[in-house]
Amino acid sequence: MSDTSSIPHLPVLRLGRSYDSLEKIEVKDHRTGEVKALVSQVNGGIVRRDLAKIAASRAALKRFTVQQLIELSAQAGELFLNGTLPLGDRGHTQSADQYVATLSATSGLPHVMVRRNMAKIHYALTHLKTVLNGLSRGLDLTILDRGFGEQFGTRLSFFPTTQALGLVMPSNSPAVNSLWLPAVALKTPVVIKPGKEEPWTPYRLIQAFIAAGVPAEAFGFYPTDHEGAATILSQCGRALIFGDKATTAQYANNPAIQIHGPGWSKILVGADCIENWREYLPVMVSSISENGGRSCINASAIVVPRFGAEIADALARELGPVQPTRPEDPEARLSGFANPKMADFIDGQIEEGLKTPGAEEVTARYRGGPRKVEFEGGVYLRPTIVRCDSFDHPLANREFLCPYASVVEVPQAEMLQRIGYTLACTAITKDPAFIEQLEAFPHIERLNIGPVSTMKISWDQPHEGNMFEFLWQRRSIERVW
Question: Got the DSSP string for 317-370?
Fold first, then answer.
């Protein structure tokens, strides 16, 4: 290997100790192949040894009150958004602009999308008091400092469910890191396996927390293999995993592991509003295409009682012509693929699905070229809108890491029978009876009534699981002393 002294090296962070492993991987620019960092790798054995000592990490956080950790988290949010922070163990630093450019280069996200993701993380960190108030239903958080107290006219006691929160992170969208941020204020150390192409966001967040005054031993940063990831999931006590259905299915019945897989998010238009469908095209377009279509809350199906062909054509006219642009373009709408094989796989899956009768890719009329394209060394997938004759079609309820959506006609009376699990559902209707059915439907995680983008997040409500209830559990208590 040539001289690498000028390349940042991201060490393993072993709960307060930096560790330079003999085994390293290169994180490269997805367009040029330039090495942007070397990242140390460890095996599951090292993870296991460190987790055996995790109680000391929790003790370091217990020295703070929840309110103090909320305040330190807010400082960390400002540092993450605007600060220059350490980058590895070779004396490198990273400004906010450098973070944006580097993450864009290795992940394929254009700068404008990286900055939007940064803003979401910053908001979550600087509004943690509001977030925790919503998640805990207004609990006096000083009760967590003491373990017990009285509120709402009753005695309350809570205990931690785990010594640490394990995280097996993806590479597709930096804002997913916002999900674990409340853990720090809830006095829970975090043990992170970063995504292979996206070590930058968790590492920068850890450095921001440390710079703000949170003990370094509260953070583990473990780039590792499948064995190491499995160790984090099985031995942390509570964990989050991100991945496709095949990756997450084995953990489906484990209540200690919170699964973040495909969202199959949808927009439903009620029979009472469908005549005005043109008014709702902007919210459909943004729900499908924002963040490059990479989020589990991007709409991947538009379910309507009528006008399916017309809506599909209108969406295709808007999205079909979208092409890759330079990453610095403030109007960029597409993300490149750090792993071109993933683009090949998705393109092949869509083409295979189109072989089944009953589906037409409407964007093909307006695209003027192939779906998978190369641009300045990067590989991109252009938006794809598929009109399906039935919800039984294999492309009707699919989700891909690009702007993709099916448009399917389903009678309103049958919609809830057909849509299945839906992470984010926007229901455009004023029909009280339909709204009541939607509110009672158990397979919708997040429900928007009216023309609200599926991408809209309410931080003071559970966001893909309630982190407070995941990390703290109430118990009965009687005290006479």
Answer: HHHTT-----TT-TT----B-SSHHHHHHHHHHHHHHHTSSSEEETTHHHH-S-
- Bridge-based pairing state of the strands 190-193 and 164-168: parallel
398-418 core/surface letters (b: 16 or more CB in 10 A; e: else): bbbbbbbbbbbbbebeebbeb
pLDDT in tens, 372-413: 999 999 999 999 999 999 999 999 999 999 999 999 999 999
Which two three-digit tokens encode residue 407?
A: 């448009």
422 residue type, one letter: T
Nearest 5°: phi and psi at 393? Answer: -65, 140
* Length reported for the chain: 481
Sole residue written with tokens 């949170």: 214
At the fourth CATH level, the homologous superfamily of domain 9-261 is Aldehyde Dehydrogenase; Chain A, domain 1 (3.40.605.10)
Angle of helix 44-51 versus helix 226-235 axis, rounded to 10? 20
Does domain 265-449 bear CATH number 3.40.309.10? yes
Q: What is the pLDDT of residue 153?
A: 84
φ, ψ for residue 282 (rounded to 5)? -60, -40
Q: Are 204 and 99 in contact (CB under 8 A)?
A: yes
Phi and psi at residue 159, in whole multiples of 5°?
-135, 150
* Residues 215-241 pLDDT 10s: 999 999 999 999 999 999 999 999 999
Answer whether 88's CB lies under 8 Å from 9's CB.
Answer: yes
State which amino acid sits at residue 237. Answer: G
Enter the tokens of residue 447. 């429900």
Q: Give start-end residues of each CATH 3.40.605.10 domain in the chain.
A: 9-261
**pTM of the model as a whole:** 0.94
Please determine, for residue 322, whether its predicted confidence score (pLDDT) is greater than 60. Answer: yes
What pairing do the DSSP bridges indicate for beta strands 237-242 and 164-168? parallel
Residue 395: CB atoms within 10 A of its CB come to: 24
CB 126 within 8 A of CB 457: no
**94 and 225 Cβ atoms separated by less than 8 Å:** no
What do you get for the CA distance between the two ends of the chain, in Å? Answer: 67
Q: Residue 272 gets which letter from DSSP? A: T
Cα separation, 395 vs 131, in Å, equals 36
